[in-house]
Amino acid sequence: MAQWWSFRWQIVVVAIVLMVFLTNPGRSEPQTHLLLQTCSRFNATNTKIFFSNLNETFRDVRRKLSNSTYFTTSNLTTNSEPVYVMAQCRNYMSTSDCLGCFDYAASSIRACTTFNGARSVLDGCFLRYENSSFFDETTLIGYEGLCGNRTSSRQSAFETAVNGLLSNLSIATPKINGFYAAATTPVNGSNTTTAYAIAQCAETITPDGCRSCMQVAYANIRSCATNFIDGWAVDSGCFMRYSATGFFRNDQTTDIVPFLVDEKSSSQKGAIIGGVVGGVGGLILLLIAVLLWHRRSTRTTPGHSLFGATELQGPKYYNYSDLKKATRDFREENKLGEGGFGDVYKGTVKDGSIFAVKKLAIDSTTAKDHFESEVRVISNIHHRNLIRLLGCCSKGPELLLVLEYMANGSLEKYLYGEKRGTLNWKQRFDIIFGTARGLAYLHEQYNETIIHRDIKPSNILLDNDFQPKIADFGLARFIPEDQTHISTRFAGTLGYTAPEYAIHGQLSEKVDTYSFGIVVLEIVSGRRCTYIPDEAAGEQYLLEHAWNLYETRMQLKLVDETLDPTKYKEEDIKKVIEIALMCTQSPVSVRPTMSEVVKLLSDRSRVQNPPSRRNVNLSNKINSTSMSNAGTTITELSGR
Ligand SMILES: *[C@@H]1O[C@H](CO)[C@@H](O)[C@H](O)[C@H]1NC(C)=O
Ligand SMILES: *[C@@H]1O[C@H](CO)[C@@H](O)[C@H](O)[C@H]1NC(C)=O
Ligand SMILES: *[C@@H]1O[C@H](CO)[C@@H](O)[C@H](O)[C@H]1NC(C)=O
Ligand SMILES: *[C@@H]1O[C@H](CO)[C@@H](O)[C@H](O)[C@H]1NC(C)=O
Ligand SMILES: *[C@@H]1O[C@H](CO)[C@@H](O)[C@H](O)[C@H]1NC(C)=O
Ligand SMILES: *[C@@H]1O[C@H](CO)[C@@H](O)[C@H](O)[C@H]1NC(C)=O
Ligand SMILES: *[C@@H]1O[C@H](CO)[C@@H](O)[C@H](O)[C@H]1NC(C)=O
Ligand SMILES: *[C@@H]1O[C@H](CO)[C@@H](O)[C@H](O)[C@H]1NC(C)=O
Ligand SMILES: *[C@@H]1O[C@H](CO)[C@@H](O)[C@H](O)[C@H]1NC(C)=O
C-alpha cells in the first residue's frame, strides 16, 4: 500500500522543499514546524470525487479534534475513491492549538494535489491519508532520526540524560492509556540544564505494535543525541521528540514511574496523563520555531548534502576534510566498530543524514592505483541485503569508504550483546533468508563472482525492520594479490572459516556457504561457534554438538531458550538446522551453492538429501593454546 514511503530520497527532497512556513504568528503557538511531508506516487483516478471525499473526511476529523480528542481517524469508502484519514495532536497542545496545527497541516498537504496518499508531520500534530486502511501500521522502512543542529557544552552528559529519558519513555508509553507520555530530566554539568521529551503512538495500533515502533524510533533518535540537543523520530505508528528547550510546560509531564517498575504491572493501565491543559508559552516556542526554520532552511545548498541523490548515481568522491568533520575527527566515541579491513566511524552531517566511514587499514600507496576502479565496481552492487557503498575518498592520508549506516547495528549485538534474546523466530528466519539471498547475489547474480570470505554475525547488519544487510563484501579487492597476508584478520575468523580454506588456502564460493551454515547454527542456538567447551563437563563445540543432536533426532535441544516455543513451528526450525548442517559439509562439492540454499529455505518441501556427518571435518576446531595468544586469527594460513 505505501511502498512509495520507502524511498528515502523522496522524503529528503520533499521535506527540504516544503520545510516550514509559519502561520498566525499572533496566536498562541500551534507548533507548525514541518518535519516532513511526502506524497504517494499514484494519482487518484477521479479527482473530483477524490477531492470531495478528502474534504469531507478532513471536516469530520476537524470536528472530532475540536471536541478535545488528540487522536482520530475517519474514512469514506462508499465510492470509487476511498479515503482513510488519521490525525493526531501531541497531548500537550490545547484544543485551539491542536486545531491550528491541523489546519496548517491540512492546507500544507494540499501540495500533494491529486496523489492518493500523503502525510504531513509537524511538531504539534500529524495528518495522513491513503486509499486503503493503514490504521494498524506500526513501522516502515526508510525512517531515520531527524536531528537539529544545536549542540551543548557537554554533549555527552546531555546524551546520557536523553538516552535514559527516551528509554524510559519507550518502555512506559505502550503501557499508558492513550499511548502518550511527556517527561523531563535534569542534565548534569552542561549549559543545558534540562532535557525534555515526549513519545506518542497512534491509538489504533496494539500495545505490542506501539512497543516495537518505540524501539525503532528510540534507535533512530538516539543517533541524534550523540551530537545534537534537538531530535525527532517519525515512524508510521509513533513519534518521539527530545530537546534541551521546553516545548511543553513543566506541569504537563506524565508520571511514568509506575510503568517502569515491573514489566508485569502492564495490566494496571491506570493511565494518569499529567495535566494536559491548554495554553502554551507562545512567544518562546515561536522563537524556537523561527530559529529552527532559519537553520533548516539555510542548509539546502545544492550538492552540499552528503546524501543527496546518491541512491541513483555511481560512487561519490568526498572531500577528506568533510568526512573528517562529519566523524568529528574520527573521534573514539564515533567509532562504530573494528572490522578486518579497518575501523568504522559514524558520520553525521548538518542535515541529519548519517553514514558510516571506513578507514581502510591498507597501504594506500599500493592500493591507490586500483582503488577508484574497485570502488566503482562495488558501488554498482545494489541488493537489499548488501550494504551500499556510497562513495570514497582517496585524496587524504588514508583511503576512506563511505557506507550506508545501519542504526540497529550488527547481528552480533542481538545474539551476544546488549540485545541478546530480543529477536523472535520470524526475525531470525528473515535474517537467515536475507543473508542467503545477499550471498547468492554476490556469488551468482552479480556480473562477477565476489567471495566474501568473512561471513560472521558482526558483518551482518540489521536495518530498522531487522532485515539483514551484509557488510565488508568485496573489500579483498583492495588488497593486491601478493599481499593478502598483510592483515592477519583477513584470513577469516577461525570457527567460521571452512577447513579447506583455513588449512590449504583453497578459495571458492563454498567458503562462504560454510560460514553461512555456522552463522545459521549460531542464530538458531544463540551460542558462539568459537565458545571453547569445557570438555570435562561434557560440553562440545557448537558444530559438533549440533551434529550429535541431529543424529539422535534431538536437534530441537539446540534451539535458543530465549525463543518462545509457541512462536515457531518445530518443523521449520528442524529444516533450517538441516540446511545449516548441509552447508558445513566437506568436500566442497557436497555443499550447496547459496542459490540452492535460498531455494531450500523458500521451498515448502523437505530437504531431499539430508546432510551426512561423514562429510564433515571437525578437525578445524580451535585449540585453546592458539586462542590464548593469537585471538581468533590464523596468520600463516591465508592466501588464495
Ligand atoms: C490505491 O492506489 C493504488 C495505486 O494507485 C492502486 O493500485 C490501488 O488499487 C488503490 N486501492 C484502492 C482500494 O482503490
Ligand atoms: C499525476 O497527475 C499530474 C497532473 O495532475 C501529472 O503531472 C502526473 O504526471 C501524474 N502522475 C502519475 C504518476 O500519473
Ligand atoms: C475541497 O477543499 C479545498 C480547500 O478547502 C477547495 O479548494 C476545493 O474546492 C474543495 N473541493 C471540493 C470538491 O469540495
Ligand atoms: C464530544 O466528546 C464526548 C465525550 O468524549 C461525546 O460524548 C460527545 O458526543 C462528543 N461531541 C461531539 C459533537 O462529537
Ligand atoms: C470506517 O468508518 C466506519 C463508520 O464511521 C467505521 O465503522 C469503520 O470502522 C471505519 N473503518 C476503519 C478501517 O476504521
Ligand atoms: C546550524 O546550521 C546553520 C545552517 O547550516 C548554521 O549556519 C549554524 O551555524 C548551525 N548552528 C550550529 C550551532 O552549528
Ligand atoms: C552550549 O555550549 C556550547 C559550547 O560552549 C555552545 O556551542 C552552545 O551554543 C551552547 N548551547 C546553548 C544552548 O547555549
Ligand atoms: C528512568 O527510570 C529509572 C527507573 O524508574 C530511573 O531510576 C531513572 O532515573 C530514569 N531515568 C531518567 C533519565 O529519567
Ligand atoms: C556531575 O558531573 C561532575 C563532573 O563534571 C561530577 O563530578 C559529579 O559527580 C556529577 N554529579 C552527578 C550527580 O552525577
UniProtKB/TrEMBL annotation:
Residues 607-640 have a biased composition (Polar residues). Keywords: ATP-binding, Glycoprotein, Kinase, Membrane, Nucleotide-binding, Receptor, Repeat, Serine/threonine-protein kinase, Signal, Transferase, Transmembrane, Transmembrane helix. The chain crosses the membrane at residues 271-293. GO terms for molecular function: ATP binding; protein serine/threonine kinase activity. The keyword Cytoplasm does not apply. Residues 1-28 form the signal peptide. ATP binds at K359. Residues 32-134, 140-247 form the Gnk2-homologous domain. This is Putative gnk2-like domain-containing protein. It comes from Helianthus annuus (Common sunflower).
